[in-house]
Design a protein that fits this description.
Blueprint (H helix, E strand, L loop, with lengths): L6 H5 L10 H8 L14 E6 L4 H8 L12 H17 L3 E4 H6 L10 H14 L1 E4 L10 H5 L3 H10 L2 H10 L1 E7 L6 E8 L12 E3 L4 E3 L10 H12 L3 E4 L11 E3 L4 E6 L5 H9 L7 E6 L15 E5 L2 E5 L12 E7 L5 E9 H7 L3 E5 L1 H5 L6 E4 L2 E4 L2 H9 L6 E4 L17 E5 L45 E6 L12 H24 L3 E6 L16 E4 L11 E4 L5 H4 L4 H8 L5 E4 L11 E3 L1 H6 L1 H4 L20 E4 L4 E5 L3 H14 L2 E5 L5 H4 E3 L3 E4 L7 H12 L5 E4 L2 H5 L6 E5 L2 E7 H6 L2 H10 L2 E5 L2 H8 L9 E3 L1
Parallel strand pairs: 1-2, 3-4, 7-8, 10-11, 13-16, 18-19, 21-22, 24-25, 28-29, 31-32, 34-35
Antiparallel strand pairs: 1-20, 4-5, 6-7, 9-10, 11-14, 12-13, 14-15, 17-18, 21-36, 23-24, 25-26, 27-28, 30-31, 33-34
Helix pairs in contact: 6-9
Protein name: Arginine deiminase
Amino acid sequence: MKQSISNYQLANMASPFPTKGPLYNLSGKYKDLSFNQVHENDEARIVILNEPSLPQWMGSIHPNGSLYEEPLDLSKAKEEHKLFRELLEKEGCTVFTVREILTGSYDQTKSEDIQHRVKLEDFAFNSMHYELDSQQNVQELSTEDKLLISDQYKKKCIECMSNEQLVEVILTRPTIRLRKSERDTELLSTEYSFKPLVNLIFQRDQQITTAAGIVLASLSSPIRAPEVQVMKLCFEILGLPIVGEIPEPGKLEGGDFYPVGRDLSLIGVGLRSNFYSVQYMMENDLFGTTRVAVVKDYFDQNQQRMHLDTVCNIIDERVMLILEDICGEDSPIRRLVDEYTRDDEGNYHLTRNDVEYSQYLKEEGFDLIYASNQNQKDYGCNGLNIGNGKFIVVDRATAKTIARSTKTNSQLLFVDFRTVTKMYGSVHCCSQVVSRFDRPRPGGSLQHSPSSDKLSPQIIRRNSRDSSSGSGSDQDEDGSDKFLMISPTDFVKDRIGMNASLIRQQRQLILQDYSKLHKLLVDAGVRVHLFCHEPYHRTDKAVFVADWFSTHDRDEIKSTEKNTLVLYPLSNQSRRRERRADILKFGFLPKYTRVLDFTPCEQGKLEYNETTIEQFIKDSSSLDESSSPSINGDDGYFIDFSEIVLDREHRLAYCSTKNDRQSKFIDLWASALGYKVIKINSKEAANKFIFIGSKFALFCPNALSSKEQSEEVIQALQTTSAKKVIEITEEQMNNSCAKIIQVKGNQKTHLLMSDKVMNSFTSNQLTELKSYVDQLLHADMSNLENMGAHNDGMISMLGRLV
């Protein structure tokens, strides 16, 4: 059974805290000293900073290349940072800087501490490199020359350096290139290069301090990645326990985390942090809270709003300062929340999904104070709550907005940080609070407190899931449809030589289109469970999620009492990778307790496995692309769900069969699901020329070479499927007019298509379509379509959960 790490447990670990020195002595200054954060509003006790120095000077030489926002005057930045530290200390915080920790100057005993010196030397040794000049032939080097570029010589140099010198090596990470010298010394330096830790001033990101303790992060930017190991060394020197470390391909940056009590943590995912890291933390109970609210940035992913702490901040116990532009269902850059709850066995389960963020906060009892777009740009949201009713702000306009609010009595402490913010961060980014006083809170989280008067009884907790049983339907009580969707966060692939600004611009435009589509569905009452895909997934077409699975309820498949998930055999390796464990676990469980796994067909076996999602995930070979090698198309049985168009009411499948192997597969599939099949000999996928709605069907006769077969299909649609057939032309077929989708929401039936598709229908056809549904829904998907999505159509973007 998994358990969270309590303060009591931490205090009784073998060596959780220093047993001597300044940190140990602080136990006399602070009552119940612990190294964790339970709530952002608790009293801040120990804060780690990193003052601007030589690495930041190096960064200022080319600010943009160093992830800075603007050029800056380093002298002014140093002065501002100094005043920030003085303010923290004046308010009772104990402050250590990275330089003080590494040099040992924070503790007089460290100057004679051999163990400290060894740690510093070893780290500096690995931070400094000697290389031969590219023009120097190694064969020309004498034995003495080789000694001068050896580790032995480097070790000698390191041992002669002062602690201050070693710290400069660690922070600037130099490489020296050398060649033989014609005169003077044996070797001559031809180039000094550095990889300075230009962003180490932003102490928030290399780790998060949760209710469980300090967790080392994994930074998204390659130039920032080494910062984590520097902070690991700092914590080791301080003697602070590290309870966990995020492994690759996890990405986590501290600006995406807020602690909100023993009951709840807020964690952002999107541009800089990913769900892999969140799942890892939940599986290892590194949050230390009952619930985890994952705030998904799947429509924006803008550098200006890169972290959760750039768009919101906890300024009082239950008061959130939040960027107004991200709030509400109508916002094109809204955030959505998935909530996970820990059971008695220590396992987290998805209990709510895709709740708009500001609505979620209100349901949690938060009062919201809205920051303007200009406030956000001026780092108004990136203040620092130091507890005791005090909030440090860097933007006067934002401070006035807070002061005019009647929702908080927090004292606002202003610090001028206008130069430091040019490096793309403010006081929250620049500080890491590793210890706050865990103030007792009666009743825990507000919404669980019977005595709380913060919540109106009229508030409805939206998008809740019943995780106690797998027998429920993935529909609302009014019969609204539910779909699994993948936001195209990695649809535009980086290519060498492609303009990086153009890549960013295209991603933004595509996400804007997708945000409109999502809003259109939600407004229509359709339920959506939204995931994303990332570069490490290597699934550039994941947005077309409906191709690799289908779902069937127990009423549709009469031979079972279970809801069924069907997995299809795919020929493309990248498409196979779309069958991700996190989607299977959190997208389909607990509703789908039976899996028909046809993936053995990818290896040339005409068979399927009846299994469960848990077993499929446990069987690593099912998710390992190497276990399903690319084999000759003549040997495998490949088909995706787009090849099959279902008439679920009559359990009839219209299927394209390009060859005999596909024909054999569809026979196996039909037998397993209890369907009758109408096989169509066509090179096109069936959903390109056939669409079946509740009362009508679309069909392109010219898609088939045989007039007789076209007539057979029409006859089947009219009689067996009992649909009114609307014929479309070959041009309309090529414009994806059959790749529309019928959805139900708010007790109404809707027909969903893109603007481009809608404009391809004639006025008479549109009139007829409107007669069969309550409403035609259409969205401008031109940016996505222009990037290659047009051929896949709307129907491939919505994975139906029946």
